[in-house]
Design a protein that fits this description.
Blueprint: H1 2-7, H2 30-33, E1 42-44, H3 47-56, E2 60-65, H4 70-80, H5 83-92, E3 94-99, H6 104-118, E4 125-129, E5 135-139, H7 153-166, H8 168-187, H9 197-209, H10 227-237, H11 246-263, E6 277-278, E7 286-287, E8 290-291, H12 292-309, H13 312-328, E9 340-341, H14 358-364, H15 367-376, H16 400-407, H17 411-429, E10 437-438, E11 441-442, H18 443-460, H19 463-479, E12 490-492, H20 510-527, H21 530-547, E13 548-549, E14 554-555, H22 586-601, H23 604-615, H24 629-639, E15 643-649, H25 651-662, E16 669-674, H26 686-689, E17 703-709, E18 712-713, H27 720-730
Parallel strand pairs: 1-3, 2-3, 15-16
Antiparallel strand pairs: 2-4, 4-5, 6-7, 8-9, 9-10, 11-12, 13-14, 15-17, 17-18
């Protein structure tokens, strides 16, 4: 079973001798350690493996996967745990296994390379590389023997070994052309001459063209959430000055999509939280793994939608995502968000932990509860899963009003019965073996979670998420950052009582720096503690120095000052991330962070760098539509004057002003809450230090707000209605 295999940390001292060359026991990654028992002589990614390949004149077998990836484990069992197939690998190849969560820099480049070869991408990613790491063949999942219309892996390995021995010039030529294609495709050369809000509108129009008005979401099956695109729609929905009824259409698309997703099986109807994606267009049957990054960005979507549309169901979903993360995916004592939860218990099930037969549900519920639950979640004799047609994925088919009417009961009674049914089913599900949770704390994903929690805490008026987010950020800044230039990609690995060896730190990438800058800014806005703002500035300056390619005018995803010895294989290819896939892309995320800091610091150099980065893609970005939501948000932030609201004071009056200030999501709006004692220059960012300490306090007021648009500020405001009216004019 996955949990036992993944979580086991027994010493390798008693393993058979033939495993002595499997070096994954050195790794801290949950995914790599799950394969340390295999007869393949795996090596982790690193110079040692490449030197060995060159010394032995062997090609490299590269396997990239993840602990949450079902088909990765299928291929492990079918192929890599087979001694006969392992012997072929060990004789003809140097085998390298990579955790895509731990090494996104490696994964993204080989995804591009293998896609160029086979037209396929995803996990497991299987590459046959030259001894220096350039791919000349590859694909995704290969069965051990010929089936599913795919060549068997044994045949692939033997054929590719023969190619290396007998047709090497062919292999080298193919590998060189693939690397040239990767360099060109990942470079995204498309500098524009100007930036305008018309480009933002084009991106919104492109997204709306793919909107599925019937089922919500974009395109057909499979369906992914696309949080960046959703936030761009939510922002556009409240800006009535756009042409072609753009704001009305954006509003409809955002509301429909968020509603349909939360009613579907892609949403965990019992515990909360979203699965990774839906295999069907109706959001019913998901791939059941749950990723931290999906849930943090969807938490922001539902929070922003609640701000703008004031629909209680969006607040409810946001609260349930937080509840699931709090109870299952967090280190409550020290701070930190875990990376992922597996889809399955073992290879013989497909989401069985999350799904129900009719008999299973009836055994848990009393007749009254079953009567409403059966219709509400569409539980029947014939379910939704191919591997077991009796298994139902819980999804909302009828609303509570319809359920109450058909059952001839008051709606309040139907709500109570459904609440009881949910609690009973969740309690029964907790008795099942739980899918494995990877307790690795990744810096970028934790920074995303910090931002999401702080935004939700403010909008939902919840102290718990705020406090936990700040605790997590404090841990990140102590354990992953040296206080100057070095930020690690991993805050902490899962603890292993059998392994006290220090593990090599994986250096931070652009995402780690950019998202952590955002998290520090959000922490300052939430707490008013100037140390967070100063950390944001230091990290931003380091991000520019280490990642901004002045010649290209854009950010690259790996440090420019990286040791040349670390640029192994495809890492020699320069990459300027533009597409949101699946997390917000590095360049627009970094640009947005710099623009937020420019509004607080007044530093033109930060704005210039952000503008340069956005200009680098202005000539091509409209073709990326659905995958350029973050770019559209960054561009909107650049071109619209920053709107800053400082709420000063304590108590109910300050709370009411803060609630009025945060109502309606706008990407260019910032709200900070301060106490009167913080109104001194040394405790404020530069632009606020020039204004706030000098504003005359309204006589007799216990709380007041200062609204500034660009460099122009209104007189202090003490009434919520006046603040809302002023914000309508400003945004």
């Amino acid at each position: 079973m996955y949990p036992q295999n993944m979580a086991s940390r027994e010493s390798t001292a008693n393993l058979p001798a033939y495993l002595s060359s499997n070096l994954l026991d050195r790794s801290a990654s949950s995914y790599l350690r799950s394969a340390r028992h295999q007869p393949v002589h795996w090596q982790p990614w690193g110079e040692e493996a490449f030197l060995r390949a060159q010394a032995e004149d062997k090609p490299i077998l590269l396997d990239i996967g993840a602990v949450w990836c079902h088909w990765c484990h299928v291929m492990d069992r079918e192929s890599y745990e087979d001694p006969e197939l392992a012997a072929i690998v060990n004789e003809h190849f140097i085998a390298i296994k990579v955790d895509r969560d731990e090494r996104p820099d490696v994964d993204t480049r080989y995804q591009a390379a293998i896609s160029a070869i086979s037209g396929q991408g995803g996990w497991p990613l299987t590459g046959i590389l030259t001894s220096t790491g350039e791919p000349y063949f590859g694909g995704t999942y290969f069965p051990a023997d010929d089936r599913y219309g795919r060549p068997g892996f044994k045949r692939v390995l033997l054929t590719m070994a023969q190619v290396w021995q007998n047709r090497r010039a062919e292999a080298l030529e193919s590998a060189a052309s693939v690397m040239a294609a990767v360099e060109q495709n990942e470079g995204f050369t498309g500098r524009g001459s100007e930036l305008s809000l018309a480009l933002v509108d084009k991106l919104v129009e492109s997204i709306l063209k793919q909107f599925d008005a019937r089922n919500g979401g974009f395109g057909s099956q499979p369906k992914f959430p696309h949080p960046g695109a959703l936030d761009l729609l939510i922002d556009a929905a409240t800006r009535g000055d756009r042409p072609n009824r753009l704001h009305e259409r954006a509003r409809e698309a955002a509301i429909t999509t968020l509603t349909k997703m939360s009613q579907g099986g892609v949403y965990d109807q019992l515990a909360g939280g979203f699965h990774r994606y839906s295999v069907d267009e109706r959001w019913v049957v998901p791939h059941f793994e749950k990723m931290l990054y999906d849930n943090t960005e969807l938490l922001r979507n539902y929070t922003h939608a609640y701000q703008s549309f004031a629909k209680a169901e969006f607040s409810h979903v946001a609260g349930e995502i937080i509840r699931w993360l709090d109870t299952s995916m967090t280190d409550r004592d020290r701070g930190g968000f875990y990376a992922s939860q597996d889809a399955d218990i073992d290879l013989d099930d497909d989401g069985d932990y999350f799904t129900w037969t009719k008999a299973e549900a009836q055994a848990v519920l009393n007749p009254q509860e079953w009567a409403v639950a059966e219709r509400y979640w569409d539980i029947g004799d014939i379910g939704d899963m191919h591997h077991n047609p009796q298994k139902n994925v819980l999804h909302v088919r009828y609303n509570v009003g319809e359920i109450a009417r058909d059952a001839s009961i008051p709606i309040e009674e139907a709500v109570t019965l459904l609440s009881n049914a949910r609690a009973r089913l969740l309690e029964a599900r907790a008795l099942r073996p739980t899918p494995f949770i990877d307790r690795t704390l990744y810096t970028s994903w934790n920074a995303m979670a910090i931002t999401a929690y702080l935004e939700a805490a403010r909008v939902l008026r919840a102290e718990g998420p705020r406090d936990f987010a700040l605790k997590t950020l404090d841990r990140l800044l102590v354990q992953a950052w040296d206080g100057a230039s070095e930020l690690a990609h991993v805050i902490a690995y899962p603890e292993d009582p059998h392994d006290n060896r220090p593990h090599e730190r994986v250096g931070g990438n652009l995402d780690d720096y950019a998202f952590t800058v955002h998290a520090c800014i959000d922490a300052w806005l939430s707490s008013g503690k100037i140390a967070y703002y100063r950390s944001a500035v230091t990290l931003a300056e380091t991000m520019i120095r280490r990642f901004f390619d002045v010649t290209a005018g854009a950010f690259v995803d790996t440090p420019l000052d990286l040791d040349p010895k670390a640029r192994l294989g495809a890492l020699t290819a320069s990459r300027k991330p533009l597409q949101d896939s699946p997390t917000p892309a590095g360049n627009p995320t970094a640009a947005s962070a710099l623009l937020r800091l420019e509004a607080l610091s007044g530093r033109q150099d930060l704005r210039d760098t952000a503008e340069d980065a956005l200009l680098s893609f202005a000539g091509i970005v409209e073709h990326f539509g659905l995958y350029a939501g973050s770019y559209g948000l960054a561009l909107s932030r650049l071109l619209q004057p920053p709107v800053q609201v400082a709420v000063v004071g304590r108590g109910a009056a300050a709370n009411q002003l803060e609630s009025a200030a945060v109502a309606r999501f706008a990407v260019n709006k910032t709200v900070v809450r301060l106490s009167p004692r913080q109104l001194v220059p040394e405790l404020l960012p530069e632009t606020l230090a020039e204004t706030l300490p000098h504003v005359p306090h309204p006589e007799g007021a216990t709380a007041w707000a200062l609204l500034c648009q660009g460099r122009t500020c209104l007189p202090p405001i003490t009434k919520c209605e006046s603040l809302q009216a002023a914000l309508e004019d400003a945004i």
